[in-house]
Amino acid sequence: MRGVPRLVRRGGFAKALVVGAALVIVGSAYRALMPNGAQGADGPQSQQIDEGRRLFAVGCSSCHGLHAEGGTNGEGRVTGPSLIGVGAAAVDFQVSTGRMPAAQTGAQVPRKPPVYTTDEIAALAAYIASLAPGPAVPAQEAYDVSNATQAEIVRGGELFRTNCTACHNFAGRGGALPNGGYAPSLMQTTPRNMYQAMLTGPQQMPVFSDQVLRPEDKRAIIAYLVALQQSDDPGGFPLGRLGPVSEGLWGWLVGIGLLVVVAVWIGAKVPRIGRNRTKV
Q1: What is the CATH number of the domain that holds 149?
Q2: Which of 96, 245, 266, 257 is nearest to 170 (CA)?
Q3: Shortest CA distance to 128 belongs to which of 195, 199, 57?
Q4: DSSP result, 43-100
Q5: What is the C-alpha to C-alpha distance for residues 271 and 275, in angstroms, rounded to an integer?
Q6: What's the farthest any 2 CA atoms get from each other in the chain?
Q7: Nearest one of 59, 224, 203, 75 to 143, comparing CA atoms
Q8: 253 assigned to some structural domain
Q9: Which among 140, 151, 166, 157 has a CA at the least distance from the CA of 228?
Q10: Is the Cα dihedral 50, 127, 196, 137 positive or negative?
């Protein structure tokens, strides 16, 4: 009977030893396999997320909820959608173009000068990205078209006319949409924002994921739009690049209008019959 407690003690010690060894092995494996870019709790990434959380609580939580879960007013009307899972790219697009924070709700939020600085936008994007996986901010090489070839520009034009002209028109000048919405002109949009818009589908725009439009296809479309931005108008006014519609309207309003004015002026100058005839 004296040997039983000794066996129990030995068994307990062996279990503790096995658990401790397992913890050491798991910890070592995690450290070996941990990504190089991973940061500790007090690393720069954590500090950026904390800053983004603070900025979000001050400037965004009144509409989107304190934890980005979405907000409603006292009548149950949605004031801001949930941002959980939208990703950093959506935040970067909306805030860098000044669409967020929105001055007021409406059919569509217009573009305006941004409220936050570049670092603050990055912090907000990092905070939202930490809540759930979503599209990340693209790297510069994804939308850099400074060395795009003519073949890429031509292919981008074909892709743009197939997927985008129904809303933005073939020249990227924008157009009207139902229910008070509109597709904005792309003539002032940066390549970075173009890529992010295709990736996230802001407002009424559909999402063009990498499965729908490959990254090289997105880059080709951006190359086409940048070529349009840099093109000249040797014929004079672009007139929205709408072709015979705007040109015909200009002809009717200006050309025929001038002819009518000239005809009235000539009629006023011709003396009427009998105006200067002497009385008998």
Answers
A1: 1.10.760.10
A2: 245
A3: 57
A4: SHHHHHHHHHHHHHHHHTHHHH-TTSS-EE-TTS-EEE---TTSHHHHHHHHHHTT-S
A5: 7
A6: 160
A7: 224
A8: no
A9: 157
A10: positive
8 A C-beta contact, residue 183 and residue 177: yes
| Structural domain range at position 180 | 140-230
Domain stops at, among 131, 158, 188: 131
Taking only the tens place, the pLDDT of each residue in 66-77 is 999 988 776 767
178 and 151 part of one domain: yes
Backbone angles phi, psi at 36, to 5 degrees: -65, -30
Strands (E), 100-215: 175-176, 182-183
Q: What b/e sequence results for 120-151 when a residue is b if at least 16 CB atoms lie within 10 Å of its CB, and e otherwise? A: bbbbbbbbbbbbeebbebbeeebbebeebeee
Cis bond upstream, residue 44 (ω within 30): no
Q: What is the pLDDT of residues 215-233, one digit of tens each?
A: 999 999 999 999 999 987 6
Looking at the structure, tell me whether residues 50 and 98 fall in a common domain: yes
As given in the structure block, the two tokens for residue 154 are 């031509």
What is the pLDDT at residue 255? 80
Give the pLDDT of residue 5.
52
Query: Is residue 12 situated within a structural domain?
Result: no
Cα separation of 89 and 124, whole Å? 11
- Domain final residue, candidates 131, 163, 179: 131
Q: How many independent structural domains does the chain possess? A: 2
Domain check: are 224 and 144 in the same one? yes
The pTM assigned to this predicted structure is 0.71
| Residue 255 DSSP label | I
- d(CA 121, CA 133) in angstroms, rounded, equals 18
Instruction: Tell me how far apart the alpha carbons of residues 31 and 40 are, in angstroms, rounded to a whole number.
Output: 12
Neighbours of 240 (CB within 10 A): 15
Q: Please answer whether residues 120 and 153 qualify as being in contact, where contact means their C-beta atoms are separated by less than 8 angstroms.
A: no
